[in-house]
Amino acid sequence: KYKTVGDFADADIKTFEKEIYQTGFYHAKARNIIAAAKMIRKEFRGVLPKTMEEILRLPGVARKTANVVLGNAYGVVEGIAVDTHVKRLSKLYGLTNETDPVKIERDLMQIIPKKDWFKFTYMLIDYGRKYCPARAHNHIACPLTKLVLK
After folding, report:
1. Which of 56, 58, 120, 122 counts the highest number of beta carbons within 10 A?
2. Span 120-133, mean pLDDT?
3. Which CATH number fits domain 84-148: 1.10.10.60, 3.40.50.720, 3.40.50.300, 1.10.1670.10?
4. What is d(CA 126, CA 132) in angstroms, rounded to the nearest whole number?
5. 3-state secondary structure 107-134
6. Fold of 5-74
């Protein structure tokens, strides 16, 4: 249904909200996605921006989203996307004492080699989902727990 930037830019907000309802925060997401699509169409001639600075100008986009978009769409790695899993695990394993995602990203960028930033993001997300969900950390199956307890 939505195959082009124009399709999103021209979407009816009420219909779009219903379609993305299950994602949570659907009012803000719908508003931001449609506004971002309009901006991409108008200011970037329908082409997704290729720089962190340009992507951060889009409505509803912060560094996490910008890092994910740049890495997946263009292979450009400018940082580490800090989602809830990356934030929680980075604190749990002593990689940062910060709570702000931008500060956590800065700490991680100092200790993780740049060549691994993109991969690190997805490895921590997958690890968090599989072994360390927020409400039920599986200490028995957790490979890092096994290493720490040796």
Report:
1. 58
2. 88
3. 1.10.1670.10
4. 9
5. HHHHHCCHHHHHHHHHHHHHHHHHCCCC
6. Endonuclease III; domain 1 (1.10.340)
C-beta contacts of 90-93 below 8 A and 24+ residues apart:
90/124, 92/132, 93/144
- Residue 6 pLDDT > 70: yes
What would the 3-class secondary structure string for 10-42 be? Answer: CCCHHHHHHHCHHHCCHHHHHHHHHHHHHHHHH
3-state helix, strand, coil in the chain (%, to 5): 60, 0, 40
Which residues lie below 8 Å from residue 59, measured CB to CB, with a gap of 6+? 31, 32, 35, 36, 39
Sign of torsion over alpha carbons 130, 127, 68, 134: positive
- Per the CB < 8 A criterion, the answer to whether 20 and 29 are in contact is yes
In tens, the pLDDT along 52-91 reads 999 999 999 999 999 999 999 999 999 999 999 999 999 9
CA nearest 65: which of 47, 52, 46? 52
Alpha-carbon span 83 to 80, nearest angstrom: 9
